[in-house]
Write a structure and sequence with these properties.
- The protein is of the alpha/beta class.
- It has one domain: Rossmann fold.
- It is built from 7 helices and 5 strands.
- Strand 4, helix 5 and strand 5 form a beta-alpha-beta unit.
- Helix 1 packs across helix 6 and helix 6 packs across helix 7.
- The longest helix is centred in the middle third of the chain and has 16 residues.
Length: 224
């Protein structure tokens, strides 16, 4: 289905999943408005650079970059607290230490404010439930509940749909779809630890590399 003269606010981290989501929304005919969050994560500078490079490729002119440094004060995540080591030993039991408390809930709340201001009818977020790290705020049911809350808490004429086109895909399916849409995967970043060359051993790198391996394609970014 092609949507004409409609805006979609895309939450874009600079990673592969959110980038693919934005490309999918553009293919549907949406005008893309992009939002990126700096939340004191270890790879903040790299992710911001990737965000702008990807927006350049997409032709996105309307961009928001929001600084949420309170996440560092909250801590409780290896991504925002450098006293907690990034795990490199594979899958953890339960919710990993890289989980940032209620991050997607906060992101979506702020995205809703922008979407209402921009008269966007859609918000797109690249959450992945089945083949993710086990984060509770990446679940389909949670995102649906946020959509209901957003529409209850905004103007009567505001009716926002949250698109999560990757939520039930595996990483290999995401890689395949990104290749099919000619997404510039060389501009994306997934590593939790490094900003120069990806570590290749953190959970995010492992998932990404495994996805490329299953598709039989080499990942275009550099690894240590």
């Amino acid at each position: 289905m092609i949507i004409k003269d409609k805006k979609a606010l895309c939450v874009m981290s600079g990673g592969m999943d959110s980038t693919l989501s934005a490309y999918m929304m553009k293919k549907m005919g949406y005008e893309i408005v992009a939002v990126h969050f700096n939340y004191a994560q270890r790879t903040q500078k790299k992710e911001l650079s990737c965000f702008h490079n990807i927006c350049d490729e997409l032709g996105v002119l309307n961009r928001y970059v929001l600084d949420l440094d309170f996440f560092a004060q909250i801590g409780a995540s290896a991504l925002t607290d450098k006293n907690i080591d990034i795990p490199t030993g594979g899958v953890e039991e339960g919710v990993p230490v890289t989980y940032v408390p209620f991050r997607n809930g906060i992101f979506l709340s702020m995205a809703a404010a922008i979407a209402e201001k921009e008269n966007a009818e859609a918000i797109a977020i690249g959450v992945v439930e089945e083949d993710s790290s086990g984060y509770p705020d990446c679940r389909d049911s949670f995102i649906q509940s946020m959509q209901r809350s957003i529409n209850l808490g905004t103007k009567d004429e505001t009716n926002i749909v949250i698109h999560m086109p990757l939520v039930h895909l595996k990483k290999s399916q995401i890689v395949k779809k990104a290749l099919d849409l000619e997404v510039p995967l060389n501009l994306t970043w997934s590593c939790y630890k490094n900003e120069d060359k990806a570590c290749g051993v953190c959970d995010s790198c492992r998932l990404r590399l495994n996805g490329f391996k299953e598709v039989g394609v080499k990942d275009p970014i550099e690894y240590q």
